[in-house]
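User: Predict the complex with alpha-L-arabinofuranose.
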Amino acid sequence: MRYTHLLLAAGISLPALSASAQTVQMTVQPGDPKLIVSKHIQGQFAEHLGRNIYGGFWVDKDLNVPKKGRIRMDIVEALQKIHVPNLRWPGGCFADTYHWHDGVGPTAQRPKMLNLWWGNTLEDNSFGTHEFLELCDMLGTEPYLAANVGSGTVEEMSNWMEYLNSNEDTPMVQERKKNGHAEPYKVSWWGIGNESWGCGGNMTPDYYTDVYKRYATFAHDYPGTQLKKIVSGANGDDANWTEVCMKKIPRNMMWGLTLHYYTLPTGSWSGSKGAATGFDEQQYFNTLRNGLKMDDIVTRHAAIMDKYDKEKRVALLVDEWGIWTDVEPGTNPGFLYQQNTLRDALLAGTTLNIFNNHCDRVRGANLAQAVNVLQALVLTDKEKMLLTPTYHVFDLYQVHQDAQYMPLEFKSPDYVMGNEKIPALNASASKDKNGAVHISLVNLDTKKTINLETALPGVSWKNVSGRILTSNSVSDYNTFEKPNNLKLAEFKGAKKKGGNLAVALPPKSVVVLELK
Ligand code: AHR
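Assistant: Here is the predicted structure with alpha-L-arabinofuranose placed in the model:
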């Protein structure tokens, strides 16, 4: 563990702080100029699940909203503003049931399919590979495809790659051209299976690594596109899965290895996971305590990867994360539709800080999920659309994309609830290509302000500005009637004091500062 706040996040106690507990001394270190916070940490996830694709991104032609074809443009415009770096599709569990060839060619001739994982809905395959890649093009985002390993074949996956990436005169390429795309799409990000320990086939890690190697052998690079082959990784803290994958799969066969961890308010998959709204402070505390485990989980998997890959060539991608609550009362339980509060925004800021602080290994992550599912960025109700508090956090944090990492040193005060405590403060910092320094700060305490006195050795700066997300209660959220209940505001609590930065960080807030 490199930094004090990480020690605290991992539940390791530090000596009790004095009465002036809410004053924190922080140092922003210059860091290693070569260590970059990958923009891909801010990736998103669009599974065929509930109203994420059908009724989300892809709407009925009669719906009275701005559209390009059937792609909903108010969502596209909102996501363009936060510069989504990559978009994972078509799943999730759905990916291991998806047959891509059913989703290309004239729409009327595409066969229908049952979405067996999510609500047994009948999908008409009108949203397929070309539509997804058109969406990515509009968003200016890197497509991240998940190949069907669980119920597909090696041939099916390798045909998909040839269809998308080759430019030779083969039947696959001829078909792509006939379907309207003359040039290769050059899709380089490929997940080989999803949750292969569970919905992707209930495999053991030994069995999966053999299957992976077989699939990866037939995942060809076509001229102009070098594939990033991604191993389906562990469930939460399953260290053995990572150990076996790292031991058995040669480095040149894997660009990345994934990890999935969801934050459940109750911490349990059986029974209630906890409500999305209307929770009390104890439930809020428990949620953040469970969310902070991400730091420990990433640390453990990264340490195993270090054992086999000292040069850190293999990326760790947390390609599913976020809060998973009970669904909104009255909605289809298979659709995973949940509201999104300030609590979720604080969790998002905290998690992105954890990833930033592990940027030497974590080089990608995908929030689950983009629209109308789990910790969504966007919720829709027919023509209506709202941006969630979580969306605003991604808006704030985009300044870290591909910026140089700057390590922080500080001791967080405790946020105490009954007999338990968690660190109240978490943070990360980076320097962008123009030399501006950005510090993202999260105060999880619901009542106490944190006063920061921050030194920035080696940084020359004149002005500080910032934006904040907060609200009266951690259970506040945006509704279709009041979509701007929670929105970003200018932050005036930071100033230059001598050569240092003084910040009064309000309770239950996410703040991002810019120094230049
Ligand atoms: O994000 C919802 C589901 O959670 C995904 O389909 C699956 O990969 C995970 O279990």
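The chain has ten helices and 28 strands.
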